[in-house]
Amino acid sequence: MKLILTHDVDRLGEAGDVVTVKDGYGRNYLLPRGYAQLWTKGAQKQIDQMAEARRKRAINDLEAAHALRDAISEANIQIKRSAGDNGRLFGAVKPRDIAHAATEQLGKTVDRRWVTLAKPIKSLGHYTATVKLHDDVLATMAIEVQPAPKK
């Protein structure tokens, strides 16, 4: 079965790719969830136009990713969380929290899906996270988890 992916699918392809999959996988998984649509000649023309626009945007995106990488690498993102006397957090700091704090402190958008942690942050201290800004651009973000003021 020949399909056009409408979303990124792990180990299969990215949105806009034309893939050939087994009938059952396409009919029972990809199509009902909206991850793909059936391939047609008209849809292929539309995909070619989208790919051309994506190539033009990629150059601008790459320059913006380099600028954001430099800003992230220089910054020390501070997150305040409630913690016990032993420094253990009440809850954990997640990539969503890191992305939100980075967006506020840098003034530039950082998406939560770009942030990868080696392990969950569950105590106060200094940590690092990897931020994938583009296929070719990775940034290392310094994170400092501080105790929130007690009320």
From TrEMBL:
Membrane-spanning ranges: none
The reply on keyword rRNA-binding is yes
Q: Which GO terms describe its molecular function?
A: rRNA binding; structural constituent of ribosome
Which residue intervals define the domain Ribosomal protein L9 in the entry?
13-40
What GO CC annotations are associated with the protein?
A: ribonucleoprotein complex; ribosome
According to its UniProt record, what is one Pfam family this protein matches? Ribosomal_L9_C
**NCBIfam families per record:** L9
Protein name (Swiss-Prot/TrEMBL) = Large ribosomal subunit protein bL9
Q: Which organism is it from?
A: Actinotignum urinale
**Chain's gene name:** rplI
